[in-house]
Write a structure and sequence with these properties.
Shape: globular
Oligomer: single chain
Structural class: alpha/beta
Helix content: 25-40%
């Protein structure tokens, strides 16, 4: 356990969100992790009152720390690529920018991001909410998780599953509740994951935490994503290698590159069902405590000018963007508006 010497001030828009998306899980699970290891934290307080500030997803706070040269831990839920950072702003100084996995960090390095240190940090997985089944059942029920891949691929996966005399249960990203997900995980003997690239893959890791082994049909490219209104990547990144499961080992199941390998993978995972232990992997690598301790260790690398470890936890001075930050935000909005109009 590595409880820090400072209070961590989390600046996050997710604190007031009513939805539960991936970024929300990052915020919620990290707070749970801090509580489990005894790390004190506050949420959305004045930046200048704390030595350790975590800018989780707030662009306003990103501009504020840049404007005031405040060392901070930043990300990972701010922007997709470096080019998405606000155009008009001071450079970051003394900050550490979080990326959820090695391939995501390598992508930012390849794109030339050098304003701050890049560090790998995956959010923790709540292994209590996604508990293990009493025993691994060898039934005929299979869960197919479908996210932003070609519908034709999904049809092929269903056909292969049925050819192996298994019953497909399909769950589509953005179209289910967490309770439905947990119920299907408890019902099925393994998962076939047909998803796009993931910088971390929290939903995938929640399935592993439920001790359900998995076949991942890997998305090896940013361009494997099938989405009409999705993020547009530049063509120069076509050869960059990604993954649907950046956190995975032999305890979790099987990763395949091509759908033509799915039949053999199904035969293998069915024959060795009791030999997998995905929950053990998640507890070892991605538990709430493991993740929280890793984040505290990253904070220990921050070079802060003044230690403020005596700040009262009951301090209610809220974070509010300064006049300079609000002006920079307006400049960026005007630039984005002009650019959007010219591109029509």
């Amino acid at each position: 356990m590595s409880v820090g010497t400072q209070i961590i001030n989390i600046i996050s828009n997710c604190a007031t969100s009513e939805r539960v998306t991936g970024p929300d899980k990052v915020f919620i699970n990290t707070c749970k992790g801090f509580e489990l290891i005894g790390q004190p934290y506050v949420v959305n307080r004045n930046l200048s009152d704390y030595s350790w500030n975590w800018i989780h997803d707030s662009v306003d706070a990103l501009i504020e720390v840049a404007l005031r040269a405040i060392p901070a831990v930043i990300g990972p839920n701010l922007v997709v690529l470096p080019k998405d950072l606000p155009r008009y702003r001071p450079r970051l100084k003394g900050c550490i920018y979080l990326q959820p996995s090695e391939w995501a960090l390598n992508l930012w390095r390849q794109l030339g991001f050098s304003e701050s240190i890049l560090a790998i940090w995956p959010a923790g997985i709540d292994t209590s909410s996604f508990g293990a089944k009493e025993e691994k059942t060898s039934n005929d029920q299979v869960l197919i998780y479908f996210k932003n891949r070609s519908p034709d691929l999904l049809s092929e996966v269903k056909a292969i599953v049925k050819n192996h005399h298994l019953v497909p249960n399909i769950i589509s990203y953005g179209d289910y509740t967490e309770e439905q997900y947990r119920n299907l995980l408890a019902k099925c003997c393994f998962v076939i994951w047909l998803g796009c690239h993931e910088s971390q893959g929290i939903a995938l890791q929640e399935a592993l935490a439920a001790d359900v082994p998995m076949i991942v049909i890997d998305a090896k490219s940013l361009f494997d994503t099938y989405s009409k209104n999705g993020y547009t990547f530049q063509n120069t990144l076509r050869l960059f290698r990604t993954s649907s499961a950046p956190y995975f080992d032999s305890r979790c199941g099987i990763i395949i590159d091509e759908i033509t390998d799915l039949g053999n993978a199904i035969i293998k995972i069915k024959s060795e069902l009791s030999g997998y232990n995905p929950r053990e992997y998640v507890i070892d690598q991605l538990s709430l405590e493991v993740s929280a301790n890793k984040l505290v260790n990253i904070f220990n690398q921050l070079k802060v000018k003044n230690n403020k470890n005596k700040v009262d936890l009951n301090n209610r001075n809220e974070f509010r963007p300064s006049y300079g930050t609000r002006l920079i935000i307006k400049m960026n909005r005007a630039h984005n508006s002009i650019f959007a109009n010219h591109s029509k």
